[in-house]
Amino acid sequence: MPEEPVLEHSASHLSKYDEVPQELHRAMLRLNFPSSYVVVGAYRLFTDKSLYAPAWDKCRNGARRGLICGFAWICASYSIQRRIIKAAITNPSSIFSMRYITRFEETAGELSHETFLGFKLPFNISTYVAILLVGSQATGIISFFVARNIRVVRRRVWDQTVASRGKGPDFWQPYVEEWDSPPVVNERWGRLDKIFKIWFWRMLIQKVILLPLSLYPFVGTFITAAFKGLSTAQDLHKPYFATKKMTAHQEAVFIEERKWDYRTFGFVAALLEGLPIVGLVFTVSNRIGAAMWAHDLEKRQHYVAAQRRTSVVGRSETVQTY
Questions:
Q1: CB 272 within 8 A of CB 279
Q2: Pairing verdict, β 119-120 and 115-116
C-alpha cells in the first residue's frame, strides 16, 4: 500500500529561520508568551533595588504631595459623587441606567443584595462605580505632581534594564525582515494613528470615551484594556524602534507580523496601568518588561541576519563554482 506523501507547511508568512539554535531556545520560549514580560517587569521593579530605589527617590516628593491632595479630594467628594452616580444609574431615562442588567435595592447600604447579570454582589453598583471614579481622579492628581519625574524614571529604567543584560549600543542592529513574504500594511492607518496620538484627540478618547466605559461594572475595565492594548504596546516599544532607526513603514510591518503578541502584551499592560493609583507604578514596570521583550526580539533579529548572510555567501560560492 503506497505511503501518503507528507505535506510540507505552506504558510507563506512562516520564516525558514523558525528553527533556532539551542542558545536561543529560552528566548524563543519567552517570545511565545509575550504577556509574561509584564509579570517579569513587575517582579524586577519590586525586587531589584538598583531599579526601585532611584525611581522612588526621583518621584518621592511629588508622589507624597499627590497622595495628600488625592486623599483630601476623595474624602471631600466621594459621598457627593456616589449620590450623583446612584441617581444616574437608577434613573430609567438616564443613558447610564443599568436597570436592564442589574436589580437595584432602593434601601441598600454599602453592602447590599443587588445582583449583576444574576450574580449577587458584595456591595452595590453605585459604590463600585464611585470607587473607580474617585480612584481615577486621585490617579490624575498624583500624575500631575509626578508627570515630569516619572517620564525621566521610565526612560532610565529602560536604559538600566538594557545595561543589565550586558549589551552596549552596538547590540541594536538595523532592522532585518524575518518573514519570507511580509504582510502588506495600510499606510492610511499609520497616518490616522498619528492623528489620534495628538494630545487633544488622545485626551478626548481616553477621558470622554474610554473613562465612562471603564466604569462599567467589572467588564468595563477589561474592554477598555482591550481597546488600549495595541497602542500601549506600541508606545512601550518606541525606544526600541528609535534605537534601531526603523522607518514608519518598517515599524508598521514589524507590528503587523506580531500583532497578536503586541495585543496580548498591551492588554495585560493596559489592564495593570488602568488600576487606580497603583497603575502609575505599573507604567514603570511595564517599561522594564518591554525592554526585556525588545532584548529577546533583537536576539532573534541577530540570528536571522546571520542566517541571511550565510545564505548569501553560500549562493555566491555556488555561482563562482559554476
A1: yes
A2: antiparallel
**Closest to 126 (Cα-Cα) out of 139, 140, 108:** 108
Query: Residue 138 region, left (φ>0) first, then alpha (ψ -120 to 50), else beta?
Result: alpha
Q: What is the pLDDT of residues 118-158, one digit of tens each?
A: 556 666 777 888 888 899 899 999 999 999 999 999 999 99
Sign of CA dihedral 283, 287, 290, 292: negative
Q: What kind and span of H or E run contains 33?
A: none
What is the chain's alpha carbon radius of gyration, rounded to the nearest angstrom?
Answer: 25
Q: Are 288 and 44 in contact (CB under 8 A)?
A: yes
Helix residue ranges, H only, the chain: 25-31, 36-47, 49-90, 125-164, 187-196, 199-203, 211-214, 219-236, 238-243, 248-257, 259-273, 279-321
Chain centroid, CA 322 distance in Å? 53
